[in-house]
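Subject: Protein record for review, amino acid sequence with backbone structure tokens
How to read it: Take the token row as a discrete description of the fold.
Enclosed: The protein record, placed directly beneath this head.
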Amino acid sequence: MILLRKLYGMLITVASSGQSLFLLVVRLYWGWQFAQTGWGKLQHLDRVTKFFTSLGIPMPHANAVFISVLELVGGVMLALGLGARLVALLFVGDMLVAYYTADHEAFVSFFSSPDKFVGAAPFAFLLVSLMILIFGPGRFSIDALLGRAFTRRKGA
């Protein structure tokens, strides 16, 4: 039993040591994906506005601009790990609205048909946003650098 406890402790230590590197890779990849999506929407605001209108989203043009800029700027910020939890919170809202409006059938199938929910386009973006919101951006982020600088300054 003691050996099992030691082995499990080693597993936890090794797995935990990769957490910040994993969060960095996730942030870089999905931050880039969000930024590309936002840039694409900005390049075709007329189409995005029409799509938002078809979904019944209020103030479709204003929301198209807001979401496009949020995804572009927020994606860059997420990749850098700057304000990552705030950006992730905004992205969670963005993806929940995307699910509810554009993939409503998948959204309401959360319990009855999980494959539909998981297979919908917003799923990976929502999952990553929740991951960063809950776990934070990790040590390899501007947020962590600012946190360490603030802690040093406060202690001095």
